[in-house]
Amino acid sequence: MQLLCNRAMFSTAFSVAASAVPSRTPKDVLRNVFMTVGANGVELIGTDQEVAIRYQVSGVTTGSAGEVLLPTQKVSSILRELQCDQFEIHVDNQTIMLKAANSKFRLSSESPQEFPPVAEFGEESFFRVPAPVFRQMIRRTSFATDTESTRYALGGLLLEFAQGTITLAATDSRRLAVATAACEQQGEPVIPTRTTVVPTKAMTLLERSIDPQAEFVDIAVHDNDVMMRSGACTVYSRLVEGRFPRYRDVIPKNGNVNVPLPVGPFFAAVRQSLIVTDEESRGVDFHFSNAVLALSSQASAVGDSRIELPIEYDHDEVRITFDPKYVAEFLRVLAPETLVDLQLTDSDTAAVFRVEDSYIYVIMPLTQDR
């Protein structure tokens, strides 16, 4: 089997497939990227058997067909160091030869027959979401999951479909992120009746792998797994077991005060408030009064700080304490020019940040006698 490859294109595709390869696994075969060459072109596959990625490679010229396992670490290192525009891959039995202008590498390979099968996207009925929109939805929710929780459902993103809409929700029980968008139906997909929770890893891999030129993400949900396809990339994932919290119940219906906050200046103030905090006193007091938001923090081993931000505010004073890291992670995924509407009730009730009608972020306050 012989291939002439564009180095930049092949390297990009290989890094995408390699992102699903586990760093630690008792199954040595999973440490490889599976490459298949056939009538449909060249495809690279990586998997840890819970999550898998298929990626169609562009910029390859070949008249061959076959399969081979590419050792992930060695091939990644070679591709990173090559300086040429093109290189060749020659495969003979279980020996791989990579040749560039002034370089030649010979690698041994395991049998491709040992690699576990990975499902292909073959559905005719599925949900379709604009790719830039879905990418943004993942970025706006995935950071709120709890990957270390023993409650497995908190380590994933809830995927919900309704008539004409799609919703992603994520929570670690201390904060909640919910993003909603319009979606289309291709064919006659069935709206899942059971809770659909996708591992954070799968969603993050998809978000990083979506081509900027891709138009749509196609999503097909089954009883135990989900398939998501966008351009050259297809992500397969098993679903997370466990019950996802009834997240709509924790969103306060109405607040006493609504405060418009521009993301750029607000994020700068929050970042400054993080400087004088430590693990023992990580809370920052947010004091709203007389057209000013004052952020105050104090740590016995560090010192104290007070940052003031002019805002539109002419209501009764409200003082509420947040973990500033939770506020910063929310603001980080928004454009600086975005206007956020903060809904406050009192110092003990969850605060709600809203961005238009498509994005909600809820934070539980800390006790002020911490």
Report on this model:
It is elongated and about 75 Å long. The chain has 3 domains: 2-114, Roll (DNA Polymerase III, Chain A, domain 2); 126-247, DNA Polymerase III, subunit A, domain 2 (DNA Polymerase III, Chain A, domain 2); 251-363, DNA Polymerase III, Chain A, domain 2 (Roll), CATH 3.10.150.10. A hairpin with a 2-residue loop joins strand 17 (225-230) and strand 18 (233-238). Helix 1 (7-18) packs antiparallel against helix 2 (72-81) and helix 5 (263-275) packs antiparallel against helix 6 (324-332). 18% of the residues lie in helices and 41% in strands. The mean pLDDT is 92. The protein contains 6 helices and 26 strands. The strands form 4 sheets. A 9-stranded antiparallel β-sheet has the order 6-2-3-4-18-17-16-10-14. The chain is an alpha+beta fold and 370 residues long.
